[in-house]
Recover the amino acids of this structure.
DNA sequence: TCAAAAGTGTTAATCCTACACCCATGC
DNA sequence: GCATGGGTGTAGGATTAACACTTTTGA
């Protein structure tokens, strides 16, 4: 079997886009950007960058996330390569996309305001340029599958969080709702959570304070590596 | 957010490799090839080909599978892109890999003998050139996950097959073994199988003939699209 | 005292697991 | 008649799904 390249074959460029998920306590959010310069000037896109021919794709994507959010957080997960011949008007560009999960906080929010980025509800993302709509669709699909095989939350939730927050997160990620008692029982049985002795008022409207939990980090890591079958 | 390409960025080449799984009734097999020409002359590789700058990646991969096996079969599934800077000594080559599942038959086997391909047991694949070992590892991982979410077998088994064949297939794919009665009950409950009134001798050594089943195609397709949670 | 969200148990149905023997046939 | 794989049922434990009321607090 021959696999021979001619100089003419080295004519493709690389790009990477990142679907950055965040969770604001009520909804899953996605980070979007506004395109500057041609083509698609002013269009909404996913945070994206050129990958130069001597650069590592994942390292470039990681740099992009850090530049945009100021955070280095949980590992990136590679999504499909998007490689349609005419997906980019400037030439053949193969986009290798990733997703990652980061914690939202106020500092992050205000940093973003200065830059040309904003968070939008994951189910309410406006139409984007290139094929970024389908990159996002695929990322949401992958997140759904991921939730059933490995825990999420460590990167998305604050260090201490309430049962309702984590339930809401799972509901957003999977797009359905759960019975409070059953959800609670299942999570506690998994022994993934540690009960703290702190209480908080979950929202301004909530009167009664609720208990805060945190992840058992060791267990969380084990489950992240080994995987499980969570049948929600 | 700017994403601007310079002419220097268009210097990358594309390749695609395919992990072709087959099932011989007893073991999962993978199709491997022998490299002709430099670099890695004579090395074992996955079936691979250059993707020219104006070619669609998936179509090229599909053409590769058809050329090698003479079959056009079940859809290809995209695996990760492999894009390490120095993965190919001739220059920066991004490999977008796929896996597919095809039926083994005798005609196919003898065609292969003429060409430079051969089937090897999926758990016994020799070391390969480039990063094809890790492409294969990832493909096996993906197949495992796939088995739990969608049915397999339609593309891997003959039209009519015995319970033991399909059980053996699932055992190979997941790398563990199941209780005969429990497996049978579960598959029958899924209503994925139609019982035929034919019987066969499964192997030469088997004395008693066993019943043949086929897939309920409509149900199979529904489950392929919708997915399920098979907790084997 | 009322509004709002927090928290809590039980039951019935289903599913999973583990387990061992007889059957039909070819040799 | 015996060796080979084909085929079958059950019981105990675990897991799920569905369900509604009381508690705590701030306003």
């Amino acid at each position: 079997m021959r696999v021979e390249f001619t100089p003419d074959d080295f004519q493709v460029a690389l790009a990477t886009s990142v679907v950055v998920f965040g969770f604001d306590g009520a909804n899953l959010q996605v980070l979007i950007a506004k395109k500057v310069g041609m083509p698609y000037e002013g269009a909404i896109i996913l945070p994206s960058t050129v990958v130069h021919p001597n650069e590592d794709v994942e390292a470039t994507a990681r740099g992009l996330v850090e530049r945009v959010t100021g955070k280095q957080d949980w590992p990136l997960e590679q999504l499909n390569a998007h490689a349609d011949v005419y997906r980019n008007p400037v030439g053949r560009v193969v986009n290798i996309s990733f997703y990652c999960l980061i914690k939202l906080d106020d500092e992050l929010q205000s940093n973003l305001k200065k830059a040309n980025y904003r968070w939008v509800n994951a189910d309410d993302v406006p139409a984007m340029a290139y094929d970024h709509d389908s990159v996002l669709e695929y990322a949401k699909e992958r997140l759904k599958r991921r939730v059933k095989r490995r825990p999420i939350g460590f990167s998305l939730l604050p260090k201490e969080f309430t049962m309702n927050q984590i339930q809401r997160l799972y509901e957003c990620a999977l797009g359905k709702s759960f019975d409070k008692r059953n959800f609670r029982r299942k999570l506690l049985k998994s022994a993934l959570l540690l009960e703290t002795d702190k209480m908080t008022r979950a929202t301004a409207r909530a009167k009664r304070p609720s208990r805060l939990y945190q992840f058992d980090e060791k267990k969380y890591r084990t489950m992240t590596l080994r995987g499980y079958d969570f049948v929600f």
Residues 32 and 46 of chain B are 5 Å apart (CA to CA). Residues 179, 181-182, 186, 201, 205-209, 231 of chain B lie near DNA strand C (CB under 10 Å from a C1'). The beta strands of chain B are 13-23, 28-34, 44-45, 48-51, 77-82, 93-101, 117-121, 161-162, 193-200, 210-215.
